[in-house]
What we know:
By secondary structure, the chain is mainly alpha-helical. It is 52% helix and 12% strand. It has one domain (10-74): Helix Hairpins (Orthogonal Bundle). Strands 1-2 form a two-stranded antiparallel ribbon. Helix 1 (10-26) packs antiparallel against helix 2 (31-58). It is rod-shaped and about 65 Å long.
Amino acid sequence: MSETAKEIEFEAALKKLEAIVEKLEDGDLSLEESLKAYEEGVKMADICSKRLSEAQKRVEVLVKTGSGKFKATPFEEGEPKPKKRK
């Protein structure tokens, strides 16, 4: 029984996608097998894209407030990266 898209983790989907790409690059598949592999690859790429998008939404950046405390704020694309503290 195959896993549904909600059950597949990013790493598993990426691994499947890499295996599909290898099979397609080998060129040993029939046209029908290649089409099925391609369709599965598109599904895995879509899952990876969705998982990355979900992760980006969850990323938070710690910002030091004027009082010296840290406050979690949503990550905004294009924001400068916080400087590393030693």
